[in-house]
Amino acid sequence: MIFKLSQRDTVKEILIKTMLFIVPGVKKTSLCLLLLAPLISYAVTIPNPLGDGTSISMIITRVTDFLFSLGLAIAVIVFLVGGFQYLFSFGSEQKTTQARNTLMYGVVGTIIMLVGKGVTALIVSIIG
């Protein structure tokens, strides 16, 4: 009693065929329960990613802090790209203008992030 594998079989199908070959008479549902048993028996508690406080002001603060950190990382990348564009423009007026625009967009984006951070801090202070 040998089972055949084809090249189109997924890992799940191969695993099911193997288990059905090893343990004859096992249905797919009982096989799934058998495979999920370790996960069910060792239930893991997932910590709250927002921390202990779950008030609306705490959620707003945590989300905006994350977005602000992400925006700062992107701003640093934009400034580096603009600096390298300016460095490698070799006096070409078109490339120098493109580098200046990239740096200007980075500055404008950083200003928008700072204003947004201030607005959210104001909203959080009003909410309490």
Descriptive notes:
This protein is mostly helical. The chain folds into 2 domains: 11-41, no CATH class; 56-127. 73% of the residues lie in helices and 0% in strands. It has 4 helices and no strands. The protein has helices spanning 11-22, 28-41, 56-87, 93-127. The longest helix is centred in the last third of the chain and has 35 residues, at 93-127. The chain is flat, with a radius of gyration of 28 Å. It starts with 10 loop residues before the first helix and ends with a helix. The model has no long low-confidence stretch (mean pLDDT 78).
Number of helices: 4
**Total beta strand runs:** 0
Helical content band: over 70%
Number of domains: 2
Helix and strand sequence: HHHH
Q: Main sheet?
A: none
Please give the alpha-carbon distance between the first and last residues.
Answer: 70 Å
User: How much strand content do the residues show?
Assistant: under 5%
Overall pLDDT? 78
Walk me through the topology.
Blueprint lengths: L10 H12 L5 H14 L14 H32 L5 H35 L1
Helix pairs in contact: 3-4
